Amino acid sequence: MVWWNPLANAAQPFLPTSSSGLIVSLLLTPAVGGLLVTLLRGKRASGVITVASTLLVLVQTLVLIGDIIAEKQLSAFGGLFYLDALGALILLPIAGVGFVSAIYSINYMGRQHERGLLDDKHITRYYQLFNAFMLTMLLVPVSNNMGLMWVAIEATTLVSVLLIMLYTKEGAIEAAWKYLIIATVGLSLALFGIVLFSYSEATAAPSSVSSAAASSLNWTYVSANAASLNPEVVKFAFIFVLIGFGTKAGLAPMHTWLPDAHSEAPTPVSALLSGVLLNCSIYAILRFDIVTSGTLGSAFSSQMLVILGAVSMGVAAASIYFAKDMKRMLAYSSVEHMGIITLGVGFGGFLGIFGALFQIINHAIAKSLMFFASGTISQKYDTKAISEIKGILKIMPVTGVVFLIGGLTIVGMPPFNIFAGEFLILTSGFSGGQFLAISLFLTFSVVIFAGLMKHLIPMVFGNPKGPGRETAIDANPKRDDMGWLAVVPMAALAAFLIMLGVYLPQPLETLIRDAVQVFNQG
Amino acid sequence: MQVPQPDILTLSSAGLLVATFGVVVRRSFAGWLSAYRYQTVVLAGTTAVIAYFADLPELYVAAALTLVIKAVLIPRILVRVTEKIKGEFKIEANPYVSIRLSVLISALLVALSYALVQETLSTASLDVLATTYVPVSVSLFFIGLFVMVSRRMALNQVVGLLIIENGLFLFTAALTYGLALIIEIGILADILVGVIIASVLLSRMSQTFDTLDMTRLENLRDD
After folding, report:
1. ipTM for the complex?
2. CB pairs under 8 A between A and B
3. How many CB atoms lie within 10 A of CB B98?
4. Which of A227, A467, B65, B210 has its CA 20 to 30 A from that of A370?
């Protein structure tokens, strides 16, 4: 057995084909990007390099998705990396949101620099960490080994803590500390679960304990042998994994770190944290759900997913209604959407899983749009307090429009894409007879609709110069959308929101169908 | 596989638990660190014992890495980075749960761990190494968690996390004879970086807030 390769005995030949080489170069791209940022340093150069590296990541991801649609699965590096339709589906938002977030960063971080909140050293460090963050997130859906995936997810925590720590203000320190401690404890529970999965494998075939110890942690191996795992142990393992990765995915009641971390991070990073990083943990839960369903039947894990999903929606509904801070409100909306995704998977069936996977893409687009808009707005108004921000439409016409579109999308209004996803999930719940969960879903959705609209309408349509408000807007009432580099990413995301609401492109539909197929095979 | 002498097993389990109680009874950061270092040395020895009886050369490497990174490097980093933090922040003067009660609760947690393992994992299928060490590892996890929530000072949360992580390592080694080496290295790297980040955060916290008392760290709320 080769020491670095736990899969050497897994009968997979080391044959780098062009597309499996692409997985490796996909991971190398942000690593090289980070290195170049370190070497060149300049503020402008770092931004351009990061945009270039994320663009390359996006192009490679699209090529990989083409390959996946054609070949169903790829593996690289002697089987250490593995990609199927489900992994590719998670890869897509990482690459897509990563790219627009890099573009948005140039404008946003540039302005933070002008205001003296960050110096040159911080900007360089920001782009280094941005590339590192991309690397750790890309590693999650391509690793074939549960342990490696765990290492990657823990690494995303560490890198994103460093990104939040870029600011030295009190709020950022407090948020970073809570995030680091809570996420790490959660993930150590998840690692207990992973070890238990590995043990359930060993008990199933006691003769091969020592040799199976390594390869039994492979998705390809475990999913294929799910039926022979020890069911009692798998039950415990799934609970640990669900609580552990659920903490990192922001599922209530383990979500307490999330609003702090997401609201205190630099805005382009908030978009990545909410729109993309949460999906990585959801992905881990989905993988374990597939294995658990293969061992115990789908009833056990589905029930737990439905409960956690409904609780998350409920907690989010109350918090959104009473929100005072714009970015915290958006963070709670992420808790809600993670809840909806888990509900969809819990309801199961083709429609439920299709809806949940579609929702992962939809939420990534909508939430990053909302965070970008909120970042521009808070720079203009110099506050994040909902009560201080009025009349965005009058001051920043384009940002106001996209903020409104994004807001209507995240509450699930037709004709936008999130409505389509939620409709699929609800349909699946009805046909599965989950009436209690459905009625909770609808109730919480109504509360969230009311709560978000209560905040959103005055923010967008109100009078910017109302009495009793002394905001920065009085001093600088110029109509201005803060530069085209901020507007273009938002406009592009808004276009996707509208398009996916009415039309699902053929390749994306095939990809999601194939990903649902991965669930059925498990 | 040779069956190991029960003496070695009992001795090492006792050593691990004694070190854990060392963290529970002490009030100062230096005290916790020395207890943690002692625990890690015993853990590395235990891992070597498992490696010997299971005949797994990989596990020796994991044991050696544990010794170097967790018993030498991590305590040193923690001491170095927290040098500037005022001495008074490094002492747990007024924990939520008194030290005496903490010892009692920790003892109950150990008992609970043994009962829990017996209930949940069908002990008949476990070998002697697993039956000895799995309950110990679960108690390390519980006590680590208890230390994190029962004390005021932020430093405790780092120490608690490190104990949990030691429990996790033992759990892995005892139940499945360790993960693949590349994964163990990845986990150790994550811990090392995590400890560095945590200690930088701690020294920033002590400067910005002029306290490490977690009860005062509640500015971010929804109201």
Report:
1. 0.94
2. 141
3. 11
4. A467
